[in-house]
Design a protein that fits this description.
Blueprint (H helix, E strand, L loop, with lengths): L26 H15 L8 H15 L4
Length: about 70
């Protein structure tokens, strides 16, 4: 086998992942999301990422609406 070529014959099979669905927002909604994320991030010693902020939004929603 040529140098630098990886032999996958002994490798474990790759696990299939759940399909990923991207979210699409309007430009106005995205700007509002980022503004809220930045404002919410002021109380943390690090900058919130989009997934972190979205997770906080979901947790808050679940608490307000019965944890569904």
């Amino acid at each position: 086998m040529p140098r630098g070529v990886y032999d996958r014959s002994k490798a474990k099979p790759r696990q299939s992942k759940k399909p990923v669905k991207n979210l699409t927002f309007s430009a106005q909604l995205a700007e509002e999301f980022w503004a809220l994320r930045d404002k919410a991030g002021e109380s943390y010693p690090f900058e919130l990422t989009n997934p972190q902020f979205f997770s906080l939004l979901l947790e808050s929603y679940k608490k307000q609406h019965g944890g569904q």
